[in-house]
Amino acid sequence: MIDYYEYSIPELVKLLGARFKDYRLRSNMTQKEVSEQSGITITTIHKFENGTSGNVSLGTFLLLLKAIGQIDALDELMPDLPPSAYLMKEEKKVQRIRHKKS
């Protein structure tokens, strides 16, 4: 298993871009097709896949996932958590946790 904590953010974006390219190719889609379906420019897709973009917004990434049919992968990334007893208080859900100032 890869230790992602060892990587800088730009390195992680580069890894994510390369992985996205693999998914796109396995989906039998060209960059042009992804561009047309997502509304993202081909240049942005190319730079993301080749690790030269430096960064992409979360919104852009989500549009790209939708275009290649992988938006459901979000459930694996951040699955729903069961209710927390710590955040429940007398059957009311606590909306905010405040820490006392020292």
Q: Cα-atom Rg, whole angstroms?
A: 19 Å
Which sequence of SSEs, written as H and E, runs from N to C? HHHHHEE
Terminus-to-terminus distance: 41 Å
> Averaging pLDDT over every residue, what do you get?
89
Unreliable spans:
none
Q: What structural class results from the helix and strand content?
A: mainly alpha
SS field, number of helical segments: 5
Strand order of the largest sheet: 1-2
Beta content? under 5%
What does this structure look like?
This protein is mainly alpha-helical. Helix content is 48%, strand content 4%. A two-stranded antiparallel sheet has the order 1-2. Strand 1 and strand 2 form a beta hairpin.
Summarize the structure.
With about 100 residues, the chain is mostly helical. Helix content is about 50%, strand content about 5%.
Helices and strands, with pairings:
Elements: H1 9-26, H2 31-38, H3 42-50, H4 58-67, H5 74-77, E1 88-89, E2 92-93
Antiparallel strand pairs: 1-2
Keywords:
5 helices, mainly alpha
